[in-house]
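Q: Given only this backbone (234 positions), what sequence would you predict?
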């Protein structure tokens, strides 16, 4: 295996599957099976998931909701997704732990770095919910921060496209895919990989990011094995 400990970043929208909002059970089961392949191969897996399928803090209707309040609502949405993913993973026979950046003793452990690392060493999948616990930070930033804290080898950003392109492939048919690209090149060319806070954290800590298509079966395992899937930013 190329990577021994990974942090998988999923968007909340990816859980919608064919639905317009909410959670698609089939998509959830598919992801759980993909993650199980990694655990069976003795890869240590941590996960951060967004909440955009339930609530987007930045896009409150007519500005009726205060930005800070909206961001906290978004954090709660990530916990709903995290709990759904936890249930699905456990139904697949995996051991999991859910850690929250906001205290919710009844449903999740608080985030404690040493405890999270110990869970990973014991082969448990650790899901980090509620973002960083602070408004004005995205779940991309939470993923970067947690990955650095637990000493992950890489962030795997599962998306609906199969990598990073010179332009949006859905809008520009001439767009070409990068196999590998540097952090500096991404900034210079304005390639939208993660938000700038998350991206800078990865750059400063030499943490590579792999952007790949999570919906194609087997891709997750291929990335971890070091196969040429998606785009690597390093």
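A: Predicted residues:
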């Amino acid at each position: 295996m190329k990577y021994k400990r990974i942090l998988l970043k999923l968007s909340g929208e990816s859980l919608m599957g064919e639905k317009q909002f909410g959670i698609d059970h089939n998509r959830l089961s598919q992801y759980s099976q993909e993650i199980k392949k990694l655990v069976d191969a003795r890869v240590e897996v941590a996960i951060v998931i967004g909440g955009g399928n339930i609530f987007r803090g930045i896009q409150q209707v007519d500005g009726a909701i205060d930005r800070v309040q909206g961001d906290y609502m978004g954090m709660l949405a990530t916990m709903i997704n995290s709990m759904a993913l936890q249930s699905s993973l456990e139904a697949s026979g995996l051991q999991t732990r859910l850690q929250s950046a906001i205290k919710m003793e009844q449903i999740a452990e608080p985030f404690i770095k040493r405890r999270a690392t110990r869970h990973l060493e014991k082969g448990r999948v650790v899901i980090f919910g509620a973002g960083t616990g602070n408004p004005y930070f995205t779940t991309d930033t939470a993923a970067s921060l947690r990955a650095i804290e637990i000493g992950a080898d890489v962030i795997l950003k599962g998306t609906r496209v199969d990598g990073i392109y010179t332009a949006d492939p859905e809008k520009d048919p001439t767009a070409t895919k990068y196999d590998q690209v540097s952090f500096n090149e991404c900034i210079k060319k304005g390639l939208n990989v993660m938000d700038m806070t998350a991206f800078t954290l990865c750059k400063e800590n030499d943490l590579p990011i792999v952007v790949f298509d999570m919906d194609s079966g087997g891709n997750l395992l291929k990335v971890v094995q070091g196969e040429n899937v998606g785009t690597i930013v390093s």
